[in-house]
């Protein structure tokens, strides 16, 4: 029984899906194998580090003499660099502690001097205050400055109240259209020049909103704050002048008593103290850092010890397992025997997982090649339009068996494609079938007569159909020939109160 092209394509698509599922499953298995192998490799590295630490428990002259001869030069070099660095750090730490002690002594001496000078400042300041308090001119200036300060505070407080009123009340005047209309016409001022009917209307509007009173309030809110600011600036300037006179009088008496020199000494010694405190803080930080680095060197997990263990680990990694077993057997400690046995087991497991991974890798390549081969068949099938509705295949094509041979490796994709092409056929359409029948009928004498009669009849029918189609075309014009008779509306012109607000 023939098979349609769509059924054959469905079988090929199903084979593609199965091949992709098999490929995805192999990829998942490959990832799991690689993850397990990586975990074993990491475990092997940790075991090598444990074995190296077992052979080198600490970095000292005694342990260096006990390590393998192959690694002794490298370990001894690390030990020498560690001891040299330790000596450098200890010398630096001792120097920093000495500097720290000297800075503390200098700071203590400076504090004593500063206390003495501060005592002199307090004594002279008291004398200055008593002498100025007994000066009538200074007392008068002080009273004037106090009064000026009171007046300034009152003015600033009044300005705050006025500004609050401006914020609360001025917007109402600015939003009032009637008030703004009269204000812009300068009503109530010499500049107002309206006459006749306009003047009567303005008076009527003025009485409606009580414009004279509103104008006074508006001018107060608009002008008074700025005038008050000018007044405050004048009072502040007067106060500053009084304070300058008081300060000059104070400086004169201070210079006579020698208080200025004492204050300069205090300022200079406070700057010296700040500098000493900063140096001391930096020295303390460096001392702590140096001490921490020394402790890290002495620690069993310090950087030099880690470097020595890494040298040992690389040597053990390059050594064969049999040699490691022989060295461990010579040692009385059972720990290295256990670690070497663990290494041997891990090597066997890693080797087994790598073999499995290689096998999965080959299977994965074959699965990918198979998926590409079937995908190639599907592309060729669709490119040749074998999935058309008139395409079919004869009974000699068993697509499932052919695909199974391709999956088993018993068939090449190009040869399978040629096999599919050989058994593909295309069913004729109705035009080709009718043409064949007419050609067969025309071969007989009666067929010739029938053909001529059909031609004449068909021509008449076509002419009548053409006439009817033309009449229909004229009765129903297309959108390109149809013209609307809708009247056009004139464009309105703007006039009158277009905003509906009047003037």
TrEMBL record:
Q: Which UniProt keywords apply?
A: Coiled coil
Parts forming coiled coils: 9-43, 79-113, 138-165, 229-259, 343-370
**Domain of life from the UniProt record:** Bacteria
Q: Where is this region: Disordered?
A: 461-503
- Biased amino acid composition, Low complexity: 475-495
Q: What is this protein called?
A: Chromosome partition protein Smc
Species the sequence originates in = Rosistilla carotiformis
